[in-house]
Amino acid sequence: MTLPRVLVLVLAGGAGGRLELLTQHRAKAAVPFAGVYRLVDFPLSNCQHAQLPDVWVSAQFHPVSLAEHLSNGRPWDLDRTSGGLMMLQPHRGTEREGWHTGTADALWRAAPLIRQYGPDALLVLSADAVYKLDYRQVVDAHLDSGGEVTMVTADVDPAEAGRYGVVQLDGDRVRRYDYKPDQPQGGTVSNEVFVFRPDRVLDRVEELARTAEDDGLDDLGTALLPQLAADGAACAYPLDGYWRDVGTVTAYWQAHRDFLASEPPLDLDDPAWPVYTRGGRHSAARILPSAEVAGSLISGGTRVAGAVHGSVISPGVVVEAGATVTDSVLLPGARVAAGAVVKRAVTDDGARIGRDARIGGDGDITLIGKAAHIPDGHLVPPGGRQPAGEEA
User: Which long-range contacts (CB under 8 A, 24 or more apart) does 98-102 make?
Assistant: First the structure.
């Protein structure tokens, strides 16, 4: 039996503004996670395990940070002579030139290329969530359903559902789709994994583009997905396992807390379904005799001489003797000097925390930007923000 021809389109072009300083100098999909990974590693690893070898990544904001990580796609078996990984970026010179104004607009701009490829199914993904899913099973279910779109769904706290596309189901059919409603009806949401029937959805996108205002198309959830649901053309595929959207600073921090549990929600090293990433050249972590480490993830290439509790320490981080890091996420190359205390904080790449400084505390998550410098003895209160590359 011949496998269906599937094209994967990863929509990684959003600004990621809700992640604040973490996306000031990098694409949202390139934000580090759990020490050694990037957010884009999760959908790409799912593609590799599902044997989907044709993946296009639509990038826009800080595309170099994403392209540098993806390189030729080798970690996900996408470095191929024919097909494999392709980067799509805003361009000039065609009628579809220009800056993407949303995910639906990005799909419209890529439509001629998609038609030329001629897939049996178009799998459209976001790159700001942590989960494992066999996309091949979703594609098969979609092709069997006869619908125009299959939405993967998840259940969340109804109080948080307004951040997502909320769906109302009738069996396995989506009878209503509301995009980021002010008053969500229930907690079943789309998790931004869609399988489309390409010819039908591209025809619909073209029609929406013809009737759009001067600002162009917005997101898939603005008009396309509600239209498909209203027409009875949308199906649901429930994801029963772990799924965490990490599109805000608080959600990003909380997702790390999930993986610090004694029984983490996903085994990232599961031999049957590992998460692949671009490997770095790091030595083993160096834990010095003065160190006190508990309940933490310590990456290679780190040097820990102080106290680290309930935290994620990324490659190249240094925690000096006498420093204390608690309930925090330190991204690559951060350094915490002797006597400093870091609590409930996220420090970006290359941040420098001076001697006896105090960062964060009980309350909202504190965020220290890329290469920011916190002077000796300085205080950044809970919930504070220190911009990238600046001295407090």
Answer: 99/60, 100/13, 100/58, 100/60, 101/215, 101/216, 101/217, 101/218, 102/216, 102/217, 102/218, 102/219, 102/220, 102/222
